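Continuing the batch. This is chain 6 of the set; chains 1 through 5 are on the previous pages. Same settings as before, nothing changed between runs. Recording input and output for traceability.
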Amino acid sequence: MTTRSRFYICGASSVAIAAVSWPAAALAQEEDAPIVVTATIDDPAQTDTAPPAALDRQAIETLAPVSVTGRLSLVPGVFAFEKGGPGGGSYVSIRGGEPNFAPVTINGVRVDDPLNSSGGGFDFTRLDPKLVERLAILRGPRSTVYGADALSGIVAVELGAPQGSSVGGFAGLGTEGRYEVGAHAAFAGVTVAASHTDTDDLYSGTRLRRDNAMMLVSPDLGPELSLDLVAFYGASESLGFPEDSGGPRLAVLPDPEAREGRQFVIGGAFAAQASEDVTLQLRGSYARSDFESSNPGIAPGVLDGVPPIITDSAFERVDTAASATWRPLDNIQLEAGASFVHETGTSVGEIDFGFAIPTEFTLSRDMPGIFAIATLGPDGGVQATAAARIDWPEGGKARLSPRLGVSAPVTQNVEFFARYAEGFKRPSLFALGYPLIANPDLEDERSTVYDAGVALKSADEAWRGSLTLFRAEYSNLIDFDPNLFTNVNRSRVNAEGVELAVSGAAGPVSVEGAITHQTSESRDGALLRFRPEWTGRVLAGWAVSETLRLAVDAEIVGAFNDSSVPTGFVRNSGYETIGAEIRWDASEAITVTGSVRNLFDADFERTVGFAEPGTNAFLSVRARY
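Output for chain 6:
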């Protein structure tokens, strides 16, 4: 049976299941009720049988992570860490996909950069966790709403200030000289915040300095109009050993790589109630990413060395969309819209082979698209979602991205779900334009993902859990061919596994955890890096009193493949690490937090040659008035 045949059969089945669930009485409209319109700049994928896995501020801030990657692995199916410490950037994989398979949004504005050398992705070390209100991770292809590049999922970051505070600040100091300071204020629908972080000598061989500033504006326009505006600026400077150099333990050349990055984001969403059943929405955004690096090179080892490289790049994206949502009956919601994306990238630099070779290029591209989403079924009953999007990439073929889903409650506390989706990713600007290795004939990368499972909740809804089976097929993957000395489409990777999530509270004790078993295989036999078979994370809290709270965070990662120039491919045996935190509300306005990471001084590496810090502590104070 072909993929397209499965698509039509699944669609017909979903509609049929939803149809038989509708009692005739449900077709009657409810009595008139106040209409409240909300702009959804933070998450355009509002209509879905697969709600996002979300982390709130308390989970994000526990153990005072340097970047939000330290918390993303609380979500099943996600493997995230900082490569070689915070100065080396971040790595986030969803269901076996590459980091550039999951676009990242900040309050709805895409910030991933297809110009960088990894072919896309976003460096989470540029973002201060203290400014993040919520993290939402949507797993599976999301091209139907977000357009190209969402092969494995979406990471949606929502900035914000602590609830209920109008003005405040924080300061923290840790071992090895790490410190951070920040302030925020909220008034009349406007929130502003800024922060500064310096990791100093926390990680051997790497250092990160980071500055963030943000502004959120949500004026009160009445119940039938809504406007959300966001502006964000992030800047970082770092020193560290180059990626794949072998780090402090193995690198031959002692000179560090110097990196500077800047991120600017501005966006807005406007929603209006056109009639009782119709809502209109406009979204627009601009994002710019600048990156400069001076790589001293890597001496030859088991693998060939890397010459010194200087890079200065700038990437810009303008993204606009308009949509209309119509709810003709309580059990039917229809949405249709159109979008337009313009991307431009410029890179200037040189490679030193004993003589300098310039690497300057500029590329730009446009992509219009249209999409439609239908949701059938009552809240609390059987629901089916069917969505489709058509994009017209500049210089390429039109792409259809379908998505189907169905959720069926068996009892009040047990619900089954199943989903199917396809996605595509355009070749990165780096792969298309970087001199020496560029290939302008590269085809789009593709993905097909199936998942099904069961969601459970206790009678009092204090505990929730889910078990999900998934299979992800990534094809036409772009890789560098050393024989042809260019980028080519050749790889096909299949990932399948089981995800288990649980969260809840019993009296003063709360637990949030995730376990994932995943196998990943490349059809051409290539060894895949950073694909552990087992990952697990548990965050447990105990409210000792109204003012005192304890938390313990435990992470386990199974064996996985890694590589460096000095060693070639190696097998990392995995690691286990535990941290603890104590939080004391000294008054209604002041909170004091002390945390210890790597509590038992475990000796391990997340990346070859880069040892993780031993036992380290951090003390912070937050004030809010």
